[in-house]
Specification:
Layout lengths: L1 H12 L1 E2 L5 E2 L11 E2 L6 E5 L6 E7 L3 E9 L9 E6 L6 E5 L10 E7 L2 E9 L6 E10 L12 E4 L15 E2 L4 E7 L2 E2 L12 E7 L3 E8 L13 E7 L4 E5 L10 E6 L3 E10 L3 E8 L12 E4 L12 E3 L18 E7 L6 E16 L9 E13 L6 E6 L10 E9 L8 E3 L3 E4 L5
Parallel strand pairs: 2-4, 3-5, 12-14, 13-16, 15-21
Antiparallel strand pairs: 1-28, 4-11, 5-10, 6-9, 6-11, 7-8, 7-10, 14-22, 16-21, 17-20, 17-22, 18-19, 18-21, 23-31, 24-25, 25-28, 26-27, 26-29, 29-30, 29-31
Length: about 450
C-alpha cells in the first residue's frame, strides 16, 4: 500500500532539490514588511540582534486548521529559545501564543482550528534579549477538523465578580456554557496542585450539560494581555454539582504548563470548570468544549540515526537532524504537512553526494569493499536517488516535502548518503550512517 502510494506521490513528496527554499528577508520587523511563509515549505531565519522581531505572512485560500512551529537553525549556534505569536489578518489581534512547547525543547508551537480564508501573520522572537541566532519555521495547514476538533464559534464569556468560588461566603460561580471561551484572571497563585488552598484564588465557571458524552476543558494563554500579565501555569478541575472532583490536571504535557482534562459526562446537569494558578498568577483563557467529532487517529512521527558509515577525507559522513544548542534535543521530525530536513555533515567542502531513499534496509548490506571502498556498506534498498552538493562548510541539507495525506501515517523511510571523495579510497566514494524515519501526524 505505502509503496504504491509513494510511487504516485514521489515527484512532489520525495526530495526537494533546494532545501530551505524560503529564507527570511530583512527587514521584516512589522506585518507590513513580513517575509513570505508557505504551508509545507520550511523557512529559515535568524534573530540577528537582541530583541529582533521576525514577522512572516501566509495566506489561506480556504478555511483551514493551522500549526506553526520553530526548531533549531542552520550554520552554528542556534537561537535556542523562541516565542511564537499568531496574529489575525489585522496584524494586531493575537490568536495564539506559545513560549516553550513540550517535545520541542525551548522552541515553540501554536495550533489554531478552522481559520477563515485570508492572510495571517506569525511573529518569531527570542525569549529574551540574550537569545540570538538562526532558527527554522514550519507551517502546516490542513482541512478543518484534522488538527483541532470542530466546535463552531465559541461563546465569549468574561469572568464574573469575585469571589466566584461558591465554597466561599457570598461566592457565586461565573455563569458559562458548553462551547464557550472564558477570559479570566487569577490574583493569587496556589502553593501546590491542591483543590482547597485557603490562600489561593479559584475561579469557578458553571455550565449545563444537555448532550452527554466527552467534555474537554482546556486553559491557554490570552493574547489580550502583555506577557507579564499572563498566567503561565494553571491547574484545573472538573467538578459536579455536589462539589465532587471528577477529573483534574496540572500540566497538559504538550503546550507549556497549561492544563486539560477530558471526561465522559454521563448525566445531564450542572457542572463546574475550576481554574487556579500554580505559583504565578495572571490572565488566562478557558475553553469548555462538549462532544465533537474526533480528530484523526495519531501516528507518532519518529526519526533515529544509526551508527555506521565509513571514513573519508573529512571524517565519517554523518546523517542526522540538528540538535538545539540548549538541551541537545532533536525536535525536527517527519510530520505530515511539513518539510522534513536532515543534515549531512563531515564531508569535503562542495562535495557532490547522492541521497539514497528507500522503504527498508537491506537484509544484508551491499559491501563496497570489493569495489575499492573497504568498510563501506550501502544499507538502504533504494527507491530513488537525488544528487546534492555540500556547502563550503562540508554540510549537505536534505529535505523531504511530506504532504498532509493521512494515508501516509506510519510510512517508513530509510535514507543514506553516498559521497564522492576521491581522496578517501580507490573507489573515491564514502557512505554515511543510515537514518530511519516514520511519517506521522503527531508526536
Amino acid at each position: 500500500m505505502h509503496r504504491r502510494l509513494l510511487t504516485v506521490l514521489l515527484p512532489s513528496f520525495c526530495c526537494s532539490l533546494l532545501s530551505q527554499s524560503l529564507p527570511e528577508l530583512e527587514p521584516n520587523d512589522t506585518p507590513a514588511t513580513a517575509s513570505l511563509l508557505l504551508s509545507g515549505v520550511q523557512s529559515y531565519g535568524a534573530i540577528g540582534v537582541s530583541l529582533d522581531l521576525d514577522y512572516y505572512a501566509f495566506t489561506l485560500t480556504v478555511p483551514s486548521d493551522v500549526r506553526a512551529m520553530t526548531a533549531a537553525g542552520f550554520g552554528g549556534s542556534d537561537v535556542g529559545d523562541t516565542t511564537l505569536t499568531l496574529f489575525a489578518p489585522d496584524g494586531t489581534t493575537v490568536l495564539a501564543f506559545n513560549d516553550d512547547f513540550t517535545g520541542r525543547a525551548f522552541y515553540s508551537q501554536v495550533t489554531v482550528g478552522n481559520l477563515a480564508a485570508g492572510t495571517y501573520f506569525i511573529l518569531v522572537q527570542g525569549f529574551s534579549s540574550a537569545e540570538t541566532g538562526p532558527y527554522t519555521l514550519d507551517l502546516c495547514s490542513t482541512p478543518p477538523g484534522d488538527l483541532v476538533q470542530l466546535t463552531g464559534a465559541l461563546n465569549p464569556v468574561s469572568e464574573g465578580a469575585e469571589p466566584n468560588d461558591p465554597r466561599q461566603s457570598g461566592g457565586a460561580a461565573t455563569v458559562s456554557s458548553v462551547f464557550s471561551r472564558n477570559l479570566g484572571s487569577l490574583a493569587v497563585g496556589n502553593s501546590s496542585f491542591a483543590y482547597s488552598d485557603p490562600t489561593a484564588d479559584y475561579d469557578f465557571y458553571a455550565f449545563t450539560v444537555v448532550t452527554t458524552g466527552n467534555h474537554t476543558i482546556t486553559t491557554q494563554a490570552t493574547g489580550t494581555l502583555p506577557a507579564a500579565g499572563r498566567c503561565s501555569d494553571t491547574c484545573i478541575w472538573l467538578v459536579d454539582a455536589n462539589n465532587t472532583v471528577l477529573a483534574a490536571n496540572d500540566d497538559i504535557g504538550g503546550g507549556n504548563f497549561w492544563s486539560q482534562v477530558t471526561f465522559d459526562i454521563a448525566t445531564p446537569g450542572t457542572y463546574f470548570a475550576v481554574v487556579a494558578a500554580y505559583a504565578a498568577p495572571g490572565g488566562y483563557l478557558l475553553d469548555i468544549i462538549g462532544s465533537v467529532p474526533p480528530l484523526p487517529s495519531v501516528t507518532n512521527a519518529l526519526f533515529s540515526a544509526s551508527a555506521g558509515g565509513c571514513p573519508g577525507s573529512a571524517g565519517t559522513p554523518h546523517l542526522d537532524t540538528r540538535a538545539d544548542s540548549i538541551t541537545g534535543q532533536h525536535s525536527e521530525l517527519p510530520l505530515l504537512g511539513t518539510e522534513f530536513v536532515v543534515d549531512l555533515t563531515l564531508v569535503p567542502a562542495g562535495a557532490p553526494y547522492f541521497k539514497i531513499l528507500g522503504f527498508l534496509p537491506f537484509a544484508t548490506p551491499f559491501d563496497l569493499g570489493p569495489l575499492g571502498a573497504p568498510g563501506c556498506f550501502v544499507e538502504v534498498d533504494l527507491v530513488n536517488t537525488i544528487l546534492g552538493f555540500a556547502d563550503a562548510a562540508g554540510v549537505g541539507f536534505w529535505s523531504l516535502s511530506l504532504p498532509y495525506v493521512l494515508a501516509l501515517r506510519g510510512l517508513p523511510l530509510e535514507m543514506q548518503a553516498a559521497v564522492f571523495d576521491p581522496s578517501a579510497n580507490a573507489l573515491g566514494v564514502t557512505v554515511s550512517n543510515r537514518g530511519s524515519a516514520v511519517c506521522g501526524n503527531g508526536y
